[in-house]
Write a structure and sequence with these properties.
There is one protein chain. Helix content is 46%, strand content 19%. The protein has 368 residues and is of the alpha+beta class. Strand 14 (329-330) and strand 15 form a beta hairpin. The longest helix is centred in the first third of the chain and has 38 residues, at 2-39. The radius of gyration is 65 Å and the shape is elongated.
C-alpha cells in the first residue's frame, strides 16, 4: 500500500510540474510579445490600421542616447520595385524634434533613406514613422516603424573644474590708428560748420553785381533815316547854313556805310570810299547816287559851292533812296540777308555810265 501511495504521489508531482512548465512557457510568450509591442508598435493609433508583420520595415538610429542638439542619424531602406510609391509621415517640426537634413540613394535593389534630426528638449522622443502606398491605394504597402531615443542634458563635472576669481576690466590705451579717423572727422565737421556760419553772416555783405541792361540796337537803316528826318527838320538850308547841312548829311551816310558794309568812311576820302564799295553788292545806280552826294558835299565844304534848292532836295531824296535800297532784309527766321536792290543788266549799266559821264562833263562846263 505504501508503494502504491508513493507511485500516485510521484505521478501527481509529475503532472503538477508539467502544468507549471506549461504556465511558465505561456508567460514567456506573452512577455516576448509585450516587449516587441513596446519597441515597435505595429498598430497605427491614428488610423487604427493593423500592419502586416511581413510589410513592417524597422528604422534604425545610430545610437540610443543623445545630448540636446546632437545630430540623430536615422536610416531605413525600402525594397526597390517597378511600382510607383508615395509616402507619408507623422513628423512635424517642433521644439522637441527638428529635421536637419535628408538624402536618398539606391543600393542592393533598395532605396535607402537617410535623415538627420536634432532634439532640443530632454526626455524620450519617438522618431517619425513612414507609410508607403502604391498609387491610387489607401492601404500601406510598407510601414516604417521607428525606435525611441533618449535626449539628455550635458553633464558638467564641476568638481574637477577650477573656479578662478573674477578679474576687473582691463584698460586698453587708445592708439593713434584708432584716434586718427575720429580726429579727421571732427576737423571736417568743424570746417563745414564754420563755412556755413561764415556764409550766413556774409551772405548779405557781398557786393551785388548789377547786370547791364541789354542794349537796344537800332538797325542801321532806321538810324540813318531817323537822322535824315531830323536834318530836314533843322532847316539849315533855309538859314544859309549849307556847309553845316552837307557836313551832317555826309556823317549820316558815313555812319550808315560803316555799320552796313564795315567800311570806315570817317577816315577815307570820297574816292577811297567808292573804291571800297566796288566789291559790295550795290547796284550801279545807287553807287552813282552816293558818289554824286559825296562829290557835291565836298564842293560845298571845301570849295564854298552853293547848290540850288532843286539840287539840295534831290540829294536828300537820293540819300533816302540809297539807304532804303541797300538796307538789310530780315527773313522769317530772324536772319539778316543782303539787300534786295534793283540791279540792272550789263547794257543798262553801260548806258547809265555814258549818261553819268555826259552829266559830269556838263556840270564841269557849268562850274567853269
Amino acid at each position: 500500500m505504501k508503494k502504491i501511495f508513493d507511485i500516485r504521489h510521484w505521478i501527481f508531482d509529475i503532472g503538477r510540474c508539467g502544468v507549471c512548465s506549461i504556465g511558465v512557457f505561456i508567460l514567456l510568450l506573452q512577455y516576448n510579445a509585450g516587449y516587441a509591442q513596446n519597441d515597435y508598435d505595429t498598430t497605427d493609433n491614428k488610423s487604427n490600421i493593423q500592419y502586416s508583420k511581413s510589410n513592417i520595415i524597422k528604422g534604425a538610429a545610430d545610437k540610443k542616447q543623445y545630448m540636446i542638439g546632437d545630430p540623430i542619424k536615422y536610416d531605413f531602406s525600402v525594397p526597390l520595385n517597378n511600382k510607383t510609391l508615395n509616402f507619408s509621415s507623422d513628423f512635424q517640426f517642433s521644439d522637441t524634434l527638428q529635421l536637419i537634413n535628408s538624402t536618398t540613394d539606391t543600393a542592393d535593389n533598395k532605396i535607402n533613406y537617410h535623415y538627420v534630426f536634432a532634439g532640443f528638449i530632454e526626455g524620450t522622443i519617438k522618431l517619425p514613422e513612414f507609410q508607403f502606398y502604391e498609387a491610387d491605394k489607401t492601404t500601406p504597402l510598407y510601414n516604417v516603424v521607428s525606435p525611441a531615443v533618449d535626449i539628455t542634458m550635458p553633464v558638467i563635472d564641476t568638481t574637477t573644474i577650477e573656479v578662478k576669481p573674477l578679474k576687473g576690466l582691463m584698460k586698453i590705451p587708445f592708439t593713434l590708428k584708432e584716434i586718427l579717423p575720429f580726429s579727421l572727422g571732427g576737423l571736417v565737421l568743424a570746417g563745414i560748420i564754420i563755412a556755413i556760419i561764415y556764409f550766413i553772416r556774409h551772405k548779405d555783405r557781398r557786393p551785388k553785381i548789377l547786370q547791364p541792361k541789354p542794349e537796344i540796337v537800332i538797325p542801321e537803316d532806321e538810324e540813318a533815316l531817323s537822322n535824315l528826318t531830323r536834318l530836314k527838320q533843322a532847316r539849315l538850308l533855309e538859314t544859309g547854313q549849307e556847309k553845316q547841312h552837307y557836313i551832317a548829311l555826309s556823317e549820316i551816310l558815313w555812319q550808315y556805310i560803316y555799320r552796313r558794309y564795315d567800311v570806315n568812311a570817317f577816315e577815307m576820302t570820297t574816292g577811297q570810299i567808292m573804291e571800297n564799295l566796288d566789291s559790295k553788292d550795290i547796284s550801279y545806280d545807287n553807287k552813282n547816287k552816293l558818289n554824286n552826294i559825296f562829290t557835291t558835299s565836298d564842293l560845298v565844304k571845301f570849295a564854298k559851292y552853293i547848290p540850288d534848292t532843286r539840287t539840295n532836295l534831290s540829294l536828300l531824296q537820293d540819300s533816302e533812296d540809297f539807304i532804303k535800297d541797300t538796307k538789310r532784309i530780315v527773313t522769317e527766321d530772324g536772319n539778316k540777308t543782303a539787300s534786295e536792290e534793283n540791279n540792272t543788266t550789263f547794257e543798262e549799266n553801260n548806258t547809265a555810265l555814258d549818261k553819268n559821264e555826259t552829266s559830269s562833263e556838263e556840270k564841269e562846263v557849268t562850274n567853269e
